[in-house]
Amino acid sequence: MHPRRPRRSGFTLVELLITMTILGLLGTMVTAVMVGQQRFFQRTTQQMDVRRELRTAVTMLSADLRSVSSAAGDIVTFDRMSITFRGLLGAAVVCATPTRAQLDLVPTNTARMQLSNFTSDPAVGDSVVVLRNDSSGVSGEYWSAHRITSVSSSTTTCSPSPYVDATLDAGKSRLRLAVTPNLPDSVVAGAPLRLLRTTRYALATQTSGAWYLGRSEYTGGAWTAAVPVAGPFQAASAAGTGGLGLAMYDSLGVAVTAVGSSNRISRIDVVARAAGERSSGVMGSSSTEVLDSLLVSIALRNRR
After folding, report:
1. Which of 267, 199, 217, 244 minimizes the C-alpha distance to 56?
2. pLDDT in tens, 211-227
3. Which of 125, 199, 250, 278 has the greatest count of CB atoms below 10 A from its CB?
């Protein structure tokens, strides 16, 4: 007689099929959760990027427009999706007036105190407004407006002067501005001045086809290329319903729509509408564009 072989324990075919089915279902569920989490993270990141670009846009517009005086004619032109204005370039103190057509400025790096500061050096075509030292200027804050016709520098101007230390500030560069029209006699040494440069904000398309908020300046007799400062945004719309919407109001809240009435503008409402990349939400849903908007009201200077 042959010895009986011991029976080997194992799984039946039915048991294997049931196990594989359960593992497949569990794998599908885990994959769905992981994909959903990844898409949620992607969409959240897109929303954060969109809101960051919105904040950047309104912050830059607010910083530039708050220095604008519509009563002084700083707003050059505007529509519902762009604005051109004379923006603040810097401020300084006059240390001398060699002629009625020249202004010497205190150096930007004086040793004892800083009386001059510019975001960039003034250039031909920029504007300068200087406070008159008379009853009209001091009491009424009357600023005399002029256009710069030439800019030169020297290390010997403003000496002697109470604003420049003869020893500590020796050899430092000082700017001399030639202006038109001639300065009134009441503009004297010690007068504060502001430098202005024509600036424009508008939406512009890039090579990718996306719309970005662009900033350009008028200097040296020509416009610089628009520099993208934030975006992408929704496409521009002449009605102001696109990526950038501007609305002007006077001190009574009445809308100002004519450029000829820009000296009445007291408040500017800015609406920025950003558009992020397309991304999916839950698994199985179609991709959608991430959209968001931000509204800010900007009060202009010297308006009541």
Report:
1. 244
2. 999 999 999 889 999 99
3. 199
